[in-house]
Amino acid sequence: MPADPARRPLRADDVLRLRWIEDPRPSPDGHHVAFVERRVDEALGEVRSRVLVVRVADGAIGCPSPDDALDAAPRWSPDGSRLVFLAVRGAAVTPMSCAPDGTAAAPVDWFPEGVVAALPLPGGGSLFTIRIEEAGDPALPLWEVPAPGWRRDGRPDGERTLRGSLIVREGDGSTRTLTERSGDRAATPSPDARTVAVVSEVPDGPGGPAVGIRLIPAGGGPARLLVPDAARVTALAWSPDGTEIAWLGRRDTGLAAVADRLHRTSLATGETRELALAGVSSPGAAIRSDDPRGMGDARMEWTGDGRIWLRWVADGAGRLGWVAATTRRDTTTPAAPVVVVAGDRAPLAFGLTPDGALLAHVTADLETPGALAIVRVADGTELARVDRNEWLGAITLGPTIRIRAFAPDGVASEARLTLPPPTRAMPTGGWPLVVSVHGGPHYAVGDRFAFETHRLAARGYAVLAGNPRGSGGYGDDFATAIVGDWGGPDLADTLALLDVAAARPDIDGSRVAITGVSYGGWMTLWAIARSGRFRAAIAENPIADLVSAFGAGEDDGSFWAGSLGGAPWEVPDRYLDRSPITHADAIRTPLLLLHAELDRNCPPSQSSELFTALRRLGRRVRYLRARDVGHLMNFTGGTAFRAARAAAIDDWLDRYLLPPAG
User: Fold this and answer.
1) Is 524 helix (H, G, I), strand (E, B) or coil?
2) Helix 451-458 crosses helix 639-657 at what angle (to 10 degrees)?
3) Backbone angles phi, psi at 407, to 5 degrees
4) pLDDT tens digits along 561-609
5) Cis omega (within 30 of 0) on the bond before 347?
6) pLDDT of 130-139, one tens digit each?
7) Exposed (0-12), middle (13-18) or buried (19+): which is 509, by Cβ within 10 Å?
């Protein structure tokens, strides 16, 4: 395809033009949809966000937030007369209220200190979730660690006590505290507002961290545990009549990181049954990319027309749809979900009116970060669309091709191969290749816009992003194949996908680099310790030593025990053998280490250990640390960090993958 002279390739500074739409919330009457827009602010040097409101009738947009705001979490009052959202004003978080069209924004007249969520209630009241961090006395020479996993990502080490509660403020001005448990989140009132369901964390529960559901009477009184704290819940939704709660998660923590299941629990009997979904192995999941949408808790809605809505992942693509709540509730009769959003794209967020008549969803594809589509559910008519990235129409992106490979044991896996745009002339021998390994490891990449992929492609690199075994969306057997065997089937799949890509005539299989973040960083280190195929490697926030990683992060070691099939004293040889630092003497690939100084998931000591080992061995290694950012530095980092990171990556790849000048 000839290049369009009116279009240009993507540049690193184009990240400043990106607008990420998330959290769509239709008003109860369906006349307006509120949503959040995030961007990297060049002047402030950090990610900012604001709340916008679109009028469905004509697509007109109102904005109750200033352009440099840090606002989020829009929620409608039950009668749709006002919109409440959270705004950062100075050092405080302030709930704001505005008219349905986004005008007349003003602070809520009363709210508690430390508010992190505000939900309007019937009768003019509000439900507030608060969380306050209380630091210990700095004059004390010793302070006690309260429990394993006391560190918080992105925060310096130090004594911190979290104090949280739910507070109801009635329309008459009276207030009452419902709970003071700091581990409660996702507070959701019942349809009659008499009961509040919360996702309740139990960090020191039996068998490790667990997350259940508790029911709290809105009028006060003892809470009731509805879903046991031996479960792991990621989303909940009340039935329209308030007699049941649907939830996503697992009734055990053994495979908590692999895939959720859809359940229904009766409030009257406490009976919980799984609602099996035909062809859906990862309900609630989203395709991952290099912005944070789709991370964290899942989302689901149970609408008045008897439908339970959710998103899921299948074969590297996203889906959005619903299952009839009248479906028989057992595990032997799978329900066939009705797919509303399909194709080569990735639904990231959605919201519906209470009656289920209007759907607002944000869906990305390989060439666009995602527009907001507002759809009439009955006939699929699109009533309005908001695209905040129309400037990408002037950018030439390279094509993305789906490839499939078979490992030596015959198991198939797939990947997306993105080629440079037609504005670049292919060098003799083909494009150099960058193999990108996703994190998790149980996430999935696929049919979703990835800025970094297109940025590298614009610089003349083909980028291979695969879903080896361990990835979600291909069934439980595929996802659990690496439990206790990190670096076995997942490395075999990665190398098989590389073989298929390198065999193409437009790829130079002799010029290949590998890169990844988190688990992908671990895989990068493991691959260069086991294979000499790579000319260069870039590991971001990697794990190098599994023994020292155990218990050093934000949990109590349960992630590692579940991933490796036991604790270090139970399977010591496995921890030692699958630690890249054990095989440091086999690493001869030039390696760039990038690590966030405030990373509490994969502590920076991991890169420090390997850097010391490789320098002692005389290997080519460079180690860069990112200041004042945590594990998700690629999502939350500001302007200066993003520019410095891109420059460092480009320098390393150019040095080892491009042919010598002249």
Assistant:
1) helix
2) 50
3) -75, 170
4) 989 999 999 999 999 999 999 999 999 999 999 999 999 899 999 999 9
5) no
6) 988 777 777 8
7) middle
